[in-house]
Design goal:
CATH topology of the largest domain: Rossmann fold
Number of helices: 11
Helix content: 40-55%
Structural class: alpha/beta
Largest sheet: 7 strands, parallel
CATH architecture of the largest domain: 3-Layer(aba) Sandwich
Strand content: 15-25%
Order of helices and strands: EHEHEHEHEEHEHEHEHEHEHEEEEH
Distance between the termini: 17 Å
CATH class of the largest domain: Alpha Beta
Length: 333
């Protein structure tokens, strides 16, 4: 199934198809799980969609993903509204703006729909949020790698997917705090830039930074298109090997640049695995199962939930480098 992408005009037509699917779901009683991605048509979320569909097929339930054409939070709100109208059992979402989504997620829960989030550990109107890494562990992993690449000194910039994306900014906070405490000779050149879910914006921002800071040593990009755009700019300026570009990206999309030495690498979790967890966890909750401390959940392992914050956080980081990128890409990531 191709990933669904939305324009504002197309959303009305998509609503009609969702309503028809909802009628079928009501007739056969099969659990239906819909997941709203940050943005459609990019490798990271293509892999997540594959995980959703494969796991749903294995469980014999309905699972699908929708992806807006941009990171506009309003498009995610509309997609969730459509799922509420459809009457799905579970809504999953990877928020672009957690605060903007709170009212529509509350409406979903008020109507008895289970709500799951990913990459949004502070979400309020949610049954559970799950993370495949902790905020501190993820941010510090990047900080340590950047410090190693720059020899513990030099200037760097930080990109996030958006200034209102809570998790990206939390990762950035953790990375910057670690560098400030442990590497006083490293300097962040400016406030962070909210461009890392847009490859062209990341490229343009990097070109501007390279013009303004000839001595720039590195870029940390939290958002799957940020490292790609930054690396393209570095390559254009023929600064490969001089600028460390680290971030979260699809190995398949960045493989050539990793081998060419223009994209230094980074860390990730498996977005396909995240898609599988959306379905596994959603199906458990739809069937009336409760989350308990020490239980084993497929895709997450043994969990120690934060019942107050409604978070399930595990540590499953994967390093992306010249030795691992080909195998990761071969998995469809």
């Amino acid at each position: 199934m191709a990933i669904r992408t939305f324009t504002r005009r197309a959303l009305l037509a998509v609503t009609a198809s969702f309503m028809a699917a909802g009628a079928l779901q009501a007739q056969d009683g099969t659990t239906t799980i819909g997941v709203v991605a940050k943005i459609g048509g990019i490798p990271w979320f293509n892999a997540m969609e594959a995980g959703i569909e494969e796991r749903a097929d294995a469980l014999g339930i309905n699972g699908f993903m929708v992806g807006p054409t941009s990171a506009d939070p309003a498009l995610q709100v509309r997609a969730i509204e459509d799922m509420i109208a459809q009457g799905v059992d579970v809504i999953g979402v990877v928020p672009n703006d957690a605060e903007v989504l709170e009212p529509v997620l509350k409406r979903a829960r008020d109507q008895g729909i289970i709500v799951l989030t990913h990459e949004s550990p502070d979400q309020e109107n949610v049954d559970w949020d799950f993370e495949l890494t902790s905020v501190q562990g993820f941010g510090e992993a990047f900080a340590k790698q950047l410090a190693e690449d720059l020899g513990g000194q030099g200037k760097y910039a930080v990109f996030v997917g958006g200034l209102t994306v809570p998790l990206h900014n939390a990762w950035a906070d953790a990375a910057v705090a670690y560098l400030d405490e442990n590497y006083p000779e490293m300097e962040q050149v400016s406030e962070r830039y909210g461009v890392a879910e847009d490859v062209d914006a990341s490229r343009r921002t990097t070109l501007d930074l390279l013009r303004a800071h000839e001595d720039l040593g590195g870029i940390l990009a939290f958002g799957s298109q940020g490292p790609i755009g930054a690396a393209r700019a570095v390559e254009e300026r023929r600064r490969s090997g001089e600028i460390a570009v680290l971030g979260v990206f699809s190995p398949g999309q960045g493989r050539k640049m990793v081998h060419d030495g223009v994209l230094s690498g980074g860390y990730m979790w498996n977005p396909k695995q995240a898609g599988e967890v959306f379905v596994t966890l959603g199906n458990m909750l739809a069937n009336g199962e409760t989350i308990e401390d020490g239980m084993t959940i497929e895709g997450l392992g043994t969990v120690t939930p934060d019942f107050e914050g409604r978070d399930i956080i595990v540590q499953q980081l994967v390093s992306i480098n010249k030795d691992t990128v080909d195998d990761l890409a071969a998995l469809g990531l």
